[in-house]
Amino acid sequence: MDWFTEFPAMEKSALRALKKSIDGGFRAWTREHGDTVETFFEPIKQMLIWSEKFLLNTPWPFILGGIVLIAWLASRSWKITVLTFVTMVLIGYFDMWDNTMRTISIMIVSTVVSIVLGIPIGIAMSKSDVVQRLITPILDVMQTMPGFVYLIPVVMLLGIGKVPGLLAVVIYAIPPIIRLTNLGIRMVDKEVLEAADAFGSSAWQRLKNVQIPLAMPTIMAGINQTIMMALALVVIASMIGVKGLGQPVLQAIANQYFTLGMFNGLAIVGVAIIFDRVSQAYGKRLQAHSEEVHGK
Amino acid sequence: MVSDTVSTTSNGPAANQNSSIEINGLYKIFGKRPKHFMAAVKEGMTKQELQEKHGHVLGLKDINLSMQAGSIQVVMGLSGSGKSTLIRHINRLIDPTVGEVNVGGQDVCKMGTKALRDFRRHETAMVFQKFALLPHRTVINNVVYGLEVQGLPRDKQESEARRWIERVGLAGFEDNYPNQLSGGMQQRVGLARALTNDAPLLLMDEAFSALDPLIRMDMQSVLLDLQKELHKTIVFITHDVDEALRLGDRIAILRDGEIIQEGTGQNIVLEPADEYIQNFVKDVNRGRVILAESIMKQGAHPGAGAQVLVHDHLEDVARMLSDASAQAVNVANDNGQVVGHLDLETTVAAIVKQEKRHTSSDTQFTI
Ligand SMILES: Nc1ncnc2c1ncn2[C@@H]1O[C@H](COP(=O)(O)OP(=O)(O)OP(=O)(O)O)[C@@H](O)[C@H]1O
Ligand SMILES: [Mg+2]
To answer: Which residues span the domain enclosing B340?
Structure first.
């Protein structure tokens, strides 16, 4: 009755051999192609280095001014602009400016990468049910797999540093933008599409003139979620050497520095709120046409 | 009995290239396996049976219709009778289950992607029942859409668009978004968008249904004026008999996806094919539909007090009779020759008479 009380698992030695051979295979592949992979990611690495340098080397008043200006231009709301200003000043005053710049840098790059990859994938999914059926389960896995697990192959492949960190962040944060691009395009009113067709729009014209603009609010919601998820991964990414607000938090956990952890944690929250409010306000402003409804 | 009153392009100015429409043996079944039920439908399965037993919708059944280039073809029928489905086949927004749709001698259903796109860009324009405006674009940017897609220079797009926006009475609203406008105004944006395209074939799906009576009359006049100038081929869907009779050179009546009568307005008013159609036309002002030549008696009348033309409507004849306080008027043809006469009694009787040939006890038709 052994098999009844104890699940009849695979034999221990066989299991060990299986794991070993997969790991071994992957390691061998890495050794062989590691350089190619690295060259492939070189442009992204340069982009990361450049943006971090830019944010750190520019005197802080310019950066602060720039951030506040962007917040104003995107949201056109005094409340959000003032909130941004106060948050950034507090961060600077409590000596977290440099780490915040590093975090913002990787956030921006990973968001840009997510958008550049995610929107075309979302469009492809919206165009074909087959593609949708193929990609959806992959996205499910990406979103539910604990962040640490896919750090492992990334580190095996690229070691520790900025690029693997970025990769981890993108893998974790890209699903919402893909999903919501797909959803947004699929939700576009059939009648309006029909009208676009009736006037002889090409596939590109109908995408550019009708589908993307009408899906934009949904896509913006996806971008917003992507940014938030990227921020959430900052602490985990710091485990593989991504510098920024995550590292002091990690340090604080290890050494039980409550205040250090708290300050940096709050700084992450502050940055998150700024990104969230500004991107949401921008998304709303894009929908100006649906705000003044006739008869209101 | 009556010669056709279709106005042909022959006497118009430089008529457009041939955009006559020939629809042959067109069937449309909506559902997962439309082809599978074709045989049954051809053998006479009704729309109701197809729907209840097999979950498929019979959209159109054996449509054969030919529309002359430069004429206005009206399509009428109750809600759900297949009007929108029919008009969508003409620019192939819907693919037929079987059948052909020839426009200018070319089968639309056999066109490749590029040919179809060019056909839609240059040969057709459409007004939608539910407007289908681009909600994120202002009125002017909606109206230029057809020309924008064609790739015309922007200033040309705008000048054309502004002209039509003005013509439909929306000057001053160019920079509003559709949902800042009333339903009737939105419909006129859709109208301007189609007219700006200046295509020889105009497809209008209940294009005036959201307009108030005054603006509606006005838009009908715009369309008729336009037609005098440009001789487009227009397919016009409406629920409104008066509109159908005013605009249509010919009228087709659909029921449950089938054409049950097709002819001139006068044909349909004088000889409704069944009770369904009789119900449609029973409140029509017959004086404005029936022509003098249709009911005139042969030869001149000795006591005729005035003269009318063969193409005059009975209403005009009656007015003439009363103005001249005469017993009868003579009817002359286009060359001024007297070909017949009409007396007061005949005229009035024709105007007020209700056809009683089909009564509600007529069991053949159930609505
Ligand atoms: N995409 C579709 N799928 C299934 N059935 C459809 C579809 N489109 C139309 N139908 C059916 O085809 C029939 C004809 O519809 P259609 O829209 O052509 O009617 P209509 O004459 O334009 O009516 P209305 O006057 O209300 O606009 C209806 O029974 C409708 O339910
Ligand atoms: Mg309809």
So the answer is: 287-351
Contacts of A196 in chain B (CB under 8 A): 134, 145
What would the pLDDT profile of A18-70 be if each residue is shown by its tens digit? 999 998 998 888 888 888 888 888 898 999 999 999 999 999 999 999 999 99
* Residues B190 and B210 reside in one and the same domain: yes
Q: Are B127 and B191 in contact (CB under 8 A)?
A: yes
Return the residue whose CA atom lies nearest to atom 14 of ligand 1: B82
Q: How many CB atoms lie within 10 A of CB B234?
A: 24
- DSSP run (H or E) holding A18: helix A12-57
Q: Which of B125, B136, B150 sits opposite A213 (nearest CB)?
A: B136
Domains of chain A, by residue range, sit at 24-286
- Whole-number Å distance between alpha carbons of B22 and B207: 22
Look up residue B108 and give its DSSP letter: G
Q: Cα(B180)–Cα(B142) distance, rounded to whole angstroms?
A: 14
In chain B, which residues have their Cβ closer than 8 Å to the Cβ of A214? 134-136
**Ligand 1, pocket-test mutation among B32, B75, B76, B85, most atoms within 8 A of CB:** B85
Residue with tokens 């009576």: B213
**Structural domain A24-286, CATH architecture:** Orthogonal Bundle (1.10)
The model's confidence at residue B29, banded by pLDDT at 50, 70 and 90, is very high
Say what the pLDDT of residue A127 is.
Answer: 93
Q: What letter would DSSP give residue B34?
A: G
A residues 9..48 contacting B (CB < 8 A): none
B295 and B268 in one domain? no
Does ipTM come in above 0.85? no
B94 lines ligand 1 (CB under 6 A): no
Do B223 and B120 have their domain in common?
yes
> Which residue has the CA at smallest separation from atom 10 of ligand 1?
B59
Domain count across chain B: 2
- Interval A178-205: pLDDT, tens: 999 999 999 999 999 999 999 999 999 9
Q: Measured from the CB, is residue B80 less than 6 Å from ligand 1?
A: yes
Q: pTM of the full predicted structure?
A: 0.84
